[in-house]
Amino acid sequence: MKKNQLILSLILSALLSSCDRSNKDSQEGVHTKTYKKQTENFSYNFTRKMIGTLRVQSQQESIIKGFRLKWYNEHLWMGNNLKLIRYDASLNNYEAFGKQGGGPDENQNITYFTVSNDSYTIFDFEKQRVATYTFKDSLLRYQKFNDGNIPFIDYFGIQESKNEYLLMYEESSQSKGYDYKFSITNNTGARLKDFSLKKLLNINDLEDLELALEGEFITNHPKFTVFYFFKVGKFIVYEGTLRNTKIYDTVDKTPIPQTVRVTRGDGGFNIQTKPPYIIFSSASVSKNHLYLLSTLAEKNYKMLDIYQLTTGKYIGSIKLPDLDDGQSAELIQITPDEKRLYVQYEDLGLVNYTIDYFMK
User: Fold this and answer.
1) Which residue, among 172, 308, 144, has the nearest Cα to 239 in the 3D structure?
2) Which residue has better confidence, 187 or 304?
3) pTM
4) CATH (one of 3.40.190.10, 2.30.30.140, 2.120.10.30, 1.10.275.10) for 2-354
């Protein structure tokens, strides 16, 4: 069991007691302490900086809770459905990008983003469109996908080092039946490679396949591209040219959920899932490691599991305790040097951990 294999724990009870969260009107309250611990395999330090609830920012910007954190060029980016927020490394300053609306240069439902030196690119789920903007929110270029050549896209990613699009969509035909496909295309929409989710996961039942569908592409690594599932204890790794595809189990080996019909007293029935959903809510890739945030947790913490990308081997876990008021971790981002870990909690509070660990 993973709980018996912990080789790294972040014990925050002493630190959290110093954080005064009673002033709900303040925008930020920065508290910093350092803690050092040595174990058989790791030696590390971490520093905690709590930026409060960002309540003033939320009122001014109408910012919705983020769905993804991303690190680029010494800045932490947070994406929500309507905007991108760029923080400095200390989390003390931020800028907002993106315009809401139905116009040609506006966004309706952002579900993916990536950043370069002078621009950002988003995928708008409602518009089925990928678009690139300057940091002044000027539209540079866009491409729509709902033109009949590409089916309706459920999940989207960009293999950033190769300028290839990664698409996940539903497909059905009389000869092959129902399936979900991973498709790799170039920036003109031409398909380069297709993968069958039904074959990768060995699922034949339509309803079970729909339950397993949800997930996210992690695309910022120059060599590896990862798709992890929210509801299934598996992750897919594309290596090199994306033609080499491997699928691995998480340490929990959470099975693919199945639908169960439960008969009611009135003769009707309710649809339930067996086992209940186990959500993997966030992931980050750095060096040769996948960091996967699991909701399989004890009462007061969640586990950030670490896997080796080349083998899928489970390495260990970081223990992320809840805050004093019961909030738990929702999103994570590890920096490329694996020295800093950013965590978003339920009320939009961000915590910056500085970790220094060495594996034997």
Assistant:
1) 308
2) 304
3) 0.74
4) 2.120.10.30
